[in-house]
Design brief:
The structure is a single chain. The protein is mostly beta strands and 285 residues long. The chain has one domain. It has 3 helices and 13 strands; from the N terminus they run E-E-E-H-E-E-E-E-E-E-E-E-E-E-H-H. The protein has helices spanning 65-68, 232-243, 253-264; strands spanning 4-18, 27-41, 48-59, 69-80, 90-93, 101-103, 120-125, 130-142, 145-158, 169-173, 179-195, 201-213, 219-229. Strands 1, 2, 3, 4, 5, 6, 7, 8, 9, 10, 11, 12 and 13 form a 13-stranded antiparallel sheet that branches. A hairpin with a 7-residue loop joins strand 5 and strand 6. The longest helix is centred in the C-terminal third of the chain and has 12 residues, at 232-243. The radius of gyration is 19 Å and the shape is globular. It starts with a strand and ends in a 21-residue tail after the last helix. The chain crosses the membrane at residues 253-277. This is DUF3068 domain-containing protein. It holds the Pfam family PorA.
Amino acid sequence: MDLKVTTFSITDDQASTRIMSDPGGRVVESPVTRQIHLEVQNPVDADAATVRVGTSLARGSQQSDLDRLISAEVWNYRIDRLSGAALSPANVSDQPASPVREVEVDGIWVKFPSNAEQTTYEVFDQTLRESHPAVFQEELEMGGQTVYRYHQVIEPQNVAQRWNGVFNTTDFMNEDGSTEQGYLFHGVERDFFVDQNSGLIVDIQEKVDNYYGTADGEAREVVLEFDGEMSDEQVEERLNQAAEVPQQSTAQLIRWIIVGFGGLLILLGLAGSFGIFGGRNSPRR
């Protein structure tokens, strides 16, 4: 089959980010864009497909080339075409010249189940690399489609306790000249807007608060403050594509995965290494 490809971007016009290459830990305010590039690849069959997702988080063009890229990752794994569940561990490349990691993708991530229900789903968070509940909130009509909104809240969690990464720890300099180890904490509030029929995510709104803190969670240094969402044009495109999916059809599922991936990742998850869009509860109508 031909490869299916989609690319899109999510932008916060005034995010706060720590420049990791700066010895002083300089924090800047600038537009930050998360770009998602998805390919659905062989092998693919009636029940499953292989997906490859590249994610990046980058500052606006007013920054130097050296400081623009915040993080980048590539994920490869098998997915159930109907439920959205992972069928294999993901091979993840998240550091240049480093070995590929194997990560279990528990719960759902790339799309919600077709014929989505008014219930709670466990949805994967890319930064923590584990799933957390996304709770059904309300039924909406958007672009003539029935859309369910699910709300996910993850209180700040110690990322270093989940997996080892270059930027998951730091050293604090105390006033007396001593040093103390700090840890990356990740907290996020998200709203997923899901087409009920297909399970496609048509909009995501996300607010991320990542910081370096002490072992007991006291925040000391900003890493990422990001409040982003998909553009109106992208939401309209997702709704139009969802409207073309026949009721309870399996013939279009590979297309559903493509659109659903585009909407959710932010997922990237992506924050790349720093996680991913929506504390706002006022949906587009």
